[in-house]
Amino acid sequence: MINSRKKGIVYEQKLVREFKELLSTENIYSSRAESKRMDDLGVDIVGEIPIHVQAKAVETCPQLHEILKNMPKDKPRTIFWKRNNKTELVIMEKQEFYDLLLTITKK
Q: What is the pTM of this model?
């Protein structure tokens, strides 16, 4: 059985790989390796990415409101949550989602 710390690190690394491929850039990193300050602010993935990401690979519901409240507000704040044998979820505040939706649908 994998321990919870290792499970979280593996999930962060998976997300970093996915974002690099999706955004066609190599300049995306785990904050554990790149920025202790951002890691301390609850941001797990840094670099050329237009959102803040906190990665959670836990079975019980994380403290969603607390996590979002403590993250910097200069980009949309998201929590990527993975549970065993469940669909992965992305959580963000409704107003930030609406702002993001308006930004990507402006003509």
A: 0.91
